[in-house]
Specification:
CATH topology of the largest domain: Rossmann fold
Radius of gyration: 20 Å
Strand content: 5-15%
CATH class of the largest domain: Alpha Beta
Number of helices: 11
Distance between the termini: 9 Å
Order of helices and strands: EHHEHEEHEHEEHEHEHEHHH
Helix content: 40-55%
Number of strands: 10
Strand order of the largest sheet: 6-7-5-4-8-9-10
Length: 295
């Protein structure tokens, strides 16, 4: 019998002294009382139940990105095979994205309303500076709110935006600076992807980034944090998307794509080309080749 293990992210990285144990999201989310107590308790209780080295039991160990592969190597001393996840077939890849001139000066973010998405940082630190560079720039945040925590976070982001002097709306058909759209249907998401100029992702150390891949499939240029699989495997470290670390770099990258039609068209083309390598058919083909190697 052959065992193939696909690791999205190894929980053990938080417990075995890897560099990822100091992940910025963990420090931000669980750094203060009382969640820091809960986090330490969780780590202590989890430790006895961690799995053994997967390379000792599996015929092949696979993972979602080159960045996650480096984390796994740091833990176990061996490098897994990288097999990027596919884009959902329902997303589709546009043949000819709407051109720069037909789009509004708007930035789109997509992902559940959760603290690690750092929407609070974007509306407080990034958007006000961006609007000084590109007057009238707007921000759309679309995300799921299936839990009480996510709904509380949505309300918190709205309050932060209002304190920053931004006009906020939950209706995309009204005039505002920030649009917070919980649980929007797919046709609304696609419409926003076709009318916005940039897809912005603020999560640090994102293991992969399916929402980013979906935006690339619609021809949107991307701006992502220079960390995680989003940077190594989707933006390809600058080849297919722009990166940043601090808020000033984020503003600069966003402003360039909002104002430079030539740059926008170049990265739009690169987004679509990268997305074509992430279809379900490509995933099945690559996985089949991997399986045959170990049979």
């Amino acid at each position: 019998m052959r065992l193939f293990e696909y690791i999205h992210f190894p929980l053990e990285a938080h417990l075995r002294g890897s560099s990822y144990a100091e992940d910025p999201y963990i420090l931000e989310r669980y750094g203060g009382f009382p969640l820091n107590v809960c986090w330490r308790l969780f780590l202590r209780l989890s430790s006895p139940f961690l799995r053994r080295n997967p390379f000792e039991s599996a015929s092949a160990v696979l993972t979602n990105s080159a960045w996650t592969a480096r984390v796994i190597r740091e833990l176990y001393g061996e490098t897994p095979l990288v097999l990027n996840p596919p884009i959902a077939p329902r997303t589709g890849i546009v043949e000819k994205p709407a051109d720069f001139g037909s789009r509004s000066d708007s930035v789109l973010m997509l992902g559940r309303f959760s603290e690690e998405k750092r929407y609070h940082w974007v509306v407080e630190k990034v958007l006000p500076k961006l609007r000084r560079e590109v007057g009238g720039a707007k921000l759309y945040i679309v995300g799921g709110t299936g839990t009480r925590t996510s709904r509380q976070y949505l309300s918190g982001v709205e309050a932060i935006a209002r304190r920053a002097g931004l006009r906020v709306s939950r209706n995309p058909n009204t005039e505002a600076d920030v649009y917070l759209l919980p649980d929007a249907p797919r046709d609304t998401i696609n419409r926003l992807m076709d009318s916005s100029k940039v897809f912005f992702h603020a999560t640090i150390n994102e293991h992969w980034g399916i929402a980013i891949a979906e935006a690339m499939a619609r021809g949107l240029p991307i701006v992502v944090h220079r960390s995680g699989g989003a940077w190594t495997d989707l933006a390809l470290e600058g080849l297919c998307g722009l990166g940043y670390e601090g808020e000033n770099e984020a503003v600069e990258s966003l402003a360039r794509l909002l104002t430079d039609g030539g740059l926008w068209r170049d990265y739009s083309r690169r987004s679509v080309e990268r997305a074509r390598e992430l279809t379900l058919g490509k995933f099945v083909e690559k996985f089949s080749v991997t399986v045959k190697r170990f049979l």
